[in-house]
Amino acid sequence: MFRCYFRRIPQLINSVDKHFFNTVAKKANILENYLSVLGKSVDYVGIHGPTAEEITKDINLSNKTCLITGANSGIGLEMTRCLSSRDCTVLMACRNPYAANIVARNVCGNSHLLKLYEINLASLRSVKKCSNEILNDQSKIDIVILNAAVFGLPWTLTEDHLETTFQVNYLSQYLLLMNIEKILAPDARVVIMSSESHRHVSWDFTHQLSPTEEMVSLPKHEYTSIRAYNISKLCGVHFMHYLAYRWLKSGKSVFCAHPGSFIKTRLCRNWWPYEALYTIMKPFSKSIAQAASTPIYCATSPELKGLSDAYYKDCKRNEESELAQNLHLSFRIYDLTRELLHDRNVAKDEPIRLEEVVAFPETKHALDEGMVANLSG
Ligand SMILES: NC(=O)c1ccc[n+]([C@@H]2O[C@H](COP(=O)([O-])OP(=O)(O)OC[C@H]3O[C@@H](n4cnc5c(N)ncnc54)[C@H](OP(=O)(O)O)[C@@H]3O)[C@@H](O)[C@H]2O)c1
């Protein structure tokens, strides 16, 4: 009996060996595939949906002009490339227009359709200067994509004494848009780059009733970079509600677009653990070309004609968070925004006049008395 077992030992070793080496080989294969994906983006259409290029394949944008903030990098650059390849003139509002010019001309085929503007969103002065230049140069803008953002910064204050993430991601882009509102085409579309992370803000009832500067422009002792980012993105969704309301009587529309999560761009550059996390997640997340699809869909798709005030994810309508749906909060954040800008002497946009608003019978139901009183003030 023992002899029988002894005879089988070499056989056993052989099979264990084969199994072992097969497993190791498979693992090495997976690892090799994984590492190759880390190096370059792969468009897994089935999993992550179409690219911006595919979304716009039947769309001609030859008479259109689009303004994009942060157009020199990541998703902004891909949107610039895609729109200019459809003959759209793209106004690239970038922090460093000289560097942006070089990048864009390397990437975009129709580089004669690109125009660069310098803007530092951490400075309201710079925003004002940039908007004046745009107003001087342009007579009509059809699409605006408020794309620029920062993430993962240590706590810093801007020259306007506001927390940087809040000012760059929200306040300055609010000001830019309101400054150029008068040259928006009658059927203009505005896309605010959003993020699912807006869902992670929780404010109690009292805070929702009257948001304060400290709630949006976080002081150092309350600051974490994720928190600041989430709040800035929540403010962006409320900005959409406010704009939709402001433009109720016009043909202009506004959308929020979530491009996807963990897209490996320069957004995560400010802190190495984020850089590592985004690198690890790269094989499982959208490519930059795919991430650009939802904002480009919102900006150009004929399917959205006549619609406004909607949050999109994966090119589909999605409900924003409960806090983001709170219209009362939208108007309170609008008040706060105007106050912050007013204190810094740059509040430009005219508030809506009450008679314009109540001319729409359906909006009467949407408003509570507080809002009406506030609008008239
Ligand atoms: N990547 C993701 O996983 C992800 C997920 C959800 C939402 N998003 C949103 O998608 C949008 C695009 O992000 P991305 O991933 O493409 O990031 P990105 O490559 O870092 O692009 C951000 C852009 O914003 C610009 N910017 C930053 N600070 C600025 C300032 N002070 N003044 C002017 N421009 C400034 C950057 O310019 P510089 O090159 O000069 O710094 C850059 O062009 C953002 O709104 C982001 O919140 C991204």
Automatic annotation (TrEMBL):
This is WW domain-containing oxidoreductase. PANTHER family: RETINOL DEHYDROGENASE, WW DOMAIN-CONTAINING OXIDOREDUCTASE. Signal peptide: none annotated. SUPFAM superfamilies: NAD(P)-binding Rossmann-fold domains. Coiled coil: none annotated. Belongs to the short-chain dehydrogenases/reductases (SDR) family. The keyword Cell membrane does not apply. It comes from Chrysodeixis includens (Soybean looper). One of its GO terms (molecular function) is oxidoreductase activity. Pfam families: adh_short. Keywords: NADP, Oxidoreductase. InterPro entries: NAD(P)-bd_dom_sf (IPR036291), SDR_fam (IPR002347).
